[in-house]
Specification:
Blueprint (H helix, E strand, L loop, with lengths): L8 H21 L20 E4 L4 H8 L5 E3 L2 H9 L5 E5 H8 L7 E5 L6 E8 L2 H16 L2 H11 L19 E6 L8 E2 L5 E2 L1 H12 L3 E6 L5 H6 L6 E6 L2 H4 L3 E2 L4 E10 L4 H7 L2 H14 L4 H33 L4 H15 L3 H12 L7 H26 L3 H9 L4 H31 L11 H12 L4 H34 L1
Parallel strand pairs: 1-2, 1-3, 6-9
Antiparallel strand pairs: 3-12, 4-12, 5-10, 5-11, 5-12, 7-8
Helix pairs in contact: 1-19, 12-13, 12-15, 12-18, 13-15, 14-15, 15-17, 16-17, 17-19, 18-19
Length: 511
């Protein structure tokens, strides 16, 4: 940074680096091999590299029938891109989940190899942790089946919705009996996916809304990664999960499944080799950027998810910094005492927090400390980051206090100041001024660290990008976009904080 607070060489280097990545990615992608289109059968993937979602039933299929250990992915977009780049031979999931993928623009180079039903099929159903909830759902579901409602929903959402253009149907809900908390995971179209204005749509969403209406309740959906849905329900954070989860004997030991609503057939999505010229034309820079903006931001008003996610990220960061500063002052008070008890407590707490990875601390806070609490997920994230910020502030402030010259403290005491007066008038002002640069840098790091809050079902900036990727299967643009947003935010914070520090130091020098 320059002395006038304008961006310096390091800032512009990061901007140029990110923009260069944005320009290079399409051309790197354009370097695929040339070949004729080929059609493959499922048995050609025996012993090959196959990707599956974490926690999916396809894990067992791959090991049992394809004689290989699968590669695990947390979202379909990453797996699909690895298929395109020849890092995976195929990606396995339910065929009805794969069909919308190959219908997405730009995915015409992909094809599906069905796995015969006689080899493997799976029933999919919702689940809950309590038998009473499952019994109530099953009674509703069986009535809906006999009335023909389920068949109508399957036609509307599944069989006639390969392009995912169906709109959610309004189901009146009174809410007189409270909210029905429903855990789901997007990225499983046509059962659950993100539609217009970031609204959840799909067969399971309508089914859940109908169940809530039947119970006189209001459906409230909690979206998260697939791997976190079962622990979420088991910790009583949700009443039920209505999503296409395969029924297995192992899962029956943990949760109680509802009546199955579909018989799923699996398939393997793979790359049909095409000519070099066709791929290059599809990913030419200008056309690629235009199409990427259209697909990832403008279609279904997905930009609103990015704006909402940015607001959540900044709210968590600011609240954590404020409460963390207050908490840090208290911890600093403990670790600067001469008495062994408060000093030992303070040092032990600091060691525990600093020795625990942020994501692990976040999960412990969410699933253990606040397991039976109805506190907002955002506030739980703020609590977790408050502890992290508090320890950082405490140790930073203590280090600054230790740098104050003892002769200045002795001089103040000789002038008649008490211990508290000396600390407030001499020690603290110098310590704050010296700790301020590290303090402001800590906030910048905090903004970036909040990217992990998606693990506890918070739709922050990073989670918004994941949701967009789960719908468009574009692995580049959403990630580059949020990288640019994080870069701009942190750079603006650096500029602002440097200006504040310079003003404070200038005022202190003048004084």
């Amino acid at each position: 940074m320059s002395k006038k607070g304008t961006p310096g060489p390091a800032y512009w280097f990061r901007i140029i680096l990110l923009l260069s990545a944005l320009m290079i990615v399409p051309f790197v992608t354009a370097s695929a091999e040339s070949a004729e289109t080929v059609t493959r059968s499922y048995d050609e993937f025996i012993g090959k590299n196959i990707g599956v979602l974490v926690g999916s039933v396809q894990d067992a299929i791959t090991q049992e029938h394809f004689d290989t250990l699968p590669l695990y992915y947390s979202n379909p977009a990453s797996a699909i891109e690895d298929v395109r780049q020849h890092r995976l031979d195929g990606y396995m999931n339910d065929i009805l989940v794969l069909l919308p993928i190959i219908n997405e623009p730009g995915n015409d180079v992909l094809a599906i190899a069905p796995i015969p039903k006689e080899i493997f099929t799976s029933e999919v159903a919702g689940f809950a942790a309590k038998q009473d909830m499952v019994d109530r759902y099953n009674a509703f579901f069986l009535n809906a089946v006999s009335a023909g409602i389920i068949d109508d929903m399957l036609d509307y959402w599944v069989y006639d919705n390969l392009e995912l253009n169906a709109a959610i149907r309004e189901i009146p809900q009174s809410g007189e009996n409270g909210k029905l908390l429903i855990a789901v995971s997007t990225g499983l179209p046509p059962f659950i996916y993100t539609g217009d204005n970031g609204r959840l749509e799909g067969f399971c969403i309508e089914l859940a809304m109908r169940f809530a209406a039947h119970e006189g309740m209001e459906a409230h959906f909690i979206d998260m990664d697939l791997s976190g849905v079962i622990p979420f329900v088991l910790s009583d954070k949700a009443d039920i999960s209505i999503m296409p989860l395969a029924v297995t004997e192992e899962r029956k030991n943990s949760v109680i499944f509802t009546e199955p609503f579909f018989q799923a057939q699996s398939g393997i999505i793979y790359l049909q080799q095409v000519s070099h010229e066709q791929i290059r034309g599809d990913f030419f820079l200008i056309k690629w950027l235009k199409n990427a903006i259209e697909r990832n931001l403008l279609t279904d008003h997905r930009w609103k998810m990015v704006v909402h996610g940015l607001g959540v990220t900044m709210a968590i960061a600011f609240l954590s910094q404020i409460f963390g500063t207050i908490f840090g002052c208290f911890i600093c008070f403990l670790i600067t005492r001469r008495k062994k008890l408060p000093l030992g407590i303070g040092n032990a707490f600091c060691g525990m927090i600093r020795g625990t990875p942020a994501v692990v601390l976040l999960m412990i806070t969410y699933y253990i400390i606040f397991r039976d609490s109805q506190i907002s997920n955002v506030l739980i994230a703020v609590f977790s980051f408050t502890m992290i910020v508090g320890v950082s502030v405490a140790q930073c402030l203590k280090g600054a206090i230790d740098t104050v010259a003892p002769v200045e403290i002795e001089a103040a005491r000789s002038l008649g100041f008490s211990s508290a007066g000396t600390f407030i008038t001499v020690t603290l002002p110098q310590a704050v001024r010296r700790a301020l640069p590290s303090y402001t840098n800590g906030f910048v790091e905090l903004v970036k660290s909040t990217a992990i809050v998606g693990y506890i079902a918070i739709q922050d900036l990073t989670r918004a990008a994941d949701i967009i990727r789960s719908r468009t299967y574009d692995p580049y643009f959403p990630l580059l976009l949020i990288s640019l947003i994080y870069l701009l935010i942190t750079s603006l914070c650096v500029i602002l904080f440097k200006h504040i520090v310079r003003k404070i130091n200038k005022g202190s020098d003048e004084f």
